[in-house]
Every structure is written in C-alpha cells, then in structure tokens.
Amino acid sequence: MLCYTGPATGIMVWGGIAYYSRTPLVRIAGTLNSQCYISEMLELVVLPYLQGLATAIFQQDNARPHVALIFQRFFVNPQIELLPWLARSPDLSPIENMWSMVAHRLI
Q1: 35 with 70: CB under 8 angstroms?
Q2: Per-residue pLDDT of the chain (107 residues; tens, 9 = 90+)
Q3: How far is CA 17 from CA 5, 21, 70, in A?
Q4: How far apart, in Å, are the Cα atoms of 61 and each of 7, 8, 9, 41, 82?
Q5: pTM of the entire structure?
Q6: How far apart are CA 1 and CA 7, in angstroms?
C-alpha cells in the first residue's frame, strides 16, 4: 500500500500485481482494518483475480490488518496458497517498486 501522511492531503490505495497482469486499483476510504481488507479487497478483488490465473500464490506483507485472526481464518481455504512471509517486511515485496514509480509520478 502507498499512504502519505502529514500536512498534505492524500489517498490510500491497494493494488496487486502478477507476472503479466494486475488487479484494479482500489481506493481505501478511512483506515484499513482487517474487516475492510477482507470485504473490500480480498472478496471483491483478490479472489476473482486469483481464480482467473492458472496458478497463483498470494503474497502479502504481514501488516497488522493482514495478520489478524479474522484474516488468517479467511485464508483457511484450500483454493488459495499463501506465500510465507517475514513479519512486516514490505521492502522485500515486488509491488514496492511499482508503488515507488507511482509516487515519483505524483510528486
């Protein structure tokens, strides 16, 4: 996720990428919590997107909304494989490079 805080106003968005495709960009109104993450991103965007791919492993960065018990229960689903990930290590995520490019274009 890309979120700017401080005196300037900003928006928070969520997006996903794969080798040759991407999800729609989702604008997050307010604070992202686990229930919002599940209902607005996972159910509406991620699951349909993953079902359209031949093979996929879902990767997320272990931010607090992603590691909550409700999130972990959601992913007790044999159709979705999760990539094991170090706690709160988003700098290792390939999407961070894309967010950096977006930020540079907006500045």
Answers
A1: yes
A2: 445 455 556 778 888 888 889 898 888 888 777 888 888 888 899 889 988 888 888 887 777 777 778 877 887 766 778 887 776 665 667 777 777 888 888 77
A3: 24, 6, 24
A4: 27, 26, 25, 14, 11
A5: 0.69
A6: 19
d(CA 5, CA 45) in angstroms, rounded, equals 25
CA–CA distance, 38 with 58 (Å, rounded to integer): 14
Q: Where are the alpha helices (DSSP H) in the chain?
A: 34-36, 47-51, 64-67, 69-74, 95-106
Burial class (CB in 10 A: 0-12, 13-18, 19+), 21: exposed
Q: Is 69 helix (H, G, I), strand (E, B) or coil?
A: helix
Number of other CB atoms surrounding residue 34 within 10 Å: 19
Residue 68 tokens, joined: 């909550």
Q: State how far the Cα of 32 lies from the Cα of 40, in Å rounded to an integer.
A: 10
Supply the DSSP symbol for 55: S
